[in-house]
Design a protein that fits this description.
Blueprint: H1 3-27, E1 33-38, E2 45-49, E3 55-60, E4 64-67, E5 73-81, E6 91-104, E7 115-119, E8 139-144, E9 151-156, H2 158-166, E10 171-178, E11 189-192, E12 206-213
Antiparallel strand pairs: 1-12, 2-3, 2-5, 4-5, 4-11, 5-10, 6-9, 6-11, 6-12, 7-8, 7-10
């Protein structure tokens, strides 16, 4: 057997196990890795506007959407701190899910239609205040159906979140509002976004970041 043939056989013996190792690493990462971010209480709350769009007030830490007995409606704002150091090594963002717990409040919120989720790309990393949220609020990224039933709702916000992530922003912000500002029945019709889930644990709105192996 020539020296060249022996060398090729040895090289093949080294390359094949290496390929198998890479495949094993990839296969072992099938479930990916997830990082869960809960919304910041000091960056979240409700913006109250009249049905015509005039802003009345910002209410930090109160989380609801819907109309009120007077000519006003609430839109909830959720702010999430972005921390790049949470990203596992050798990974890339595969999917980002906004997970929201809905809890029926007062009246008949179903009359106000599906809940609309918007991304606020220019929102400052500051305490919620009037004048921060445009009209209409940012870019719509999805809807939540059945606002009258308690439970979790998921919305894929990958592209919206990556805008903030790739820009190096310190916060990613989303707003949730009803399709119609009011149903005109002169009573409050609301949905809240906090409470407890089926296990009795606090149910806070989350961003779920799924990272996949970057081969």
């Amino acid at each position: 057997m020539s020296c060249v043939r022996i060398a090729l056989l040895l090289l093949a013996g080294l390359v094949l196990p290496a390929c198998g190792l890479a495949e094993s690493i990839a296969e072992g990462f099938v479930d990916d890795e997830e990082v869960v971010l809960e919304h910041r209480l000091d960056r979240s709350g409700t913006i109250v506007r009249t049905a015509s769009g005039t802003e009345i007030e910002a209410i930090p830490a109160q989380l609801y959407a819907g109309d009120a007995a007077i000519d006003a409606y609430g839109m909830c704002v959720f702010g999430f701190a972005i921390e790049p150091s949470l990203q596992p090594s050798n990974t890339e963002i595969d999917r980002v899910t906004l997970r929201i717990w809905l809890e029926p409040g007062e009246g008949a919120p179903a009359d106000l239609g599906p809940l609309i989720v918007s991304h606020l790309p220019a929102h400052p990393d500051e305490l919620l205040a009037t004048g921060m949220v445009p009209l209409p609020p940012g870019n719509d990224v999805g809807t939540l159906t059945g606002p009258y039933a308690a439970g979790w709702r998921d919305v894929d916000v990958t592209l919206a979140f990556l805008q903030d992530w790739n820009a190096g922003r310190s916060i990613s912000v989303f707003a949730v509002r009803c399709t119609s500002p009011t149903n005109g029945d002169a009573q409050a019709d609301t949905v809240t976004f906090d409470g407890t889930d089926g296990s009795g644990s606090p149910a806070r709105t989350q961003l779920i970041l799924r990272f996949s192996l970057d081969l």
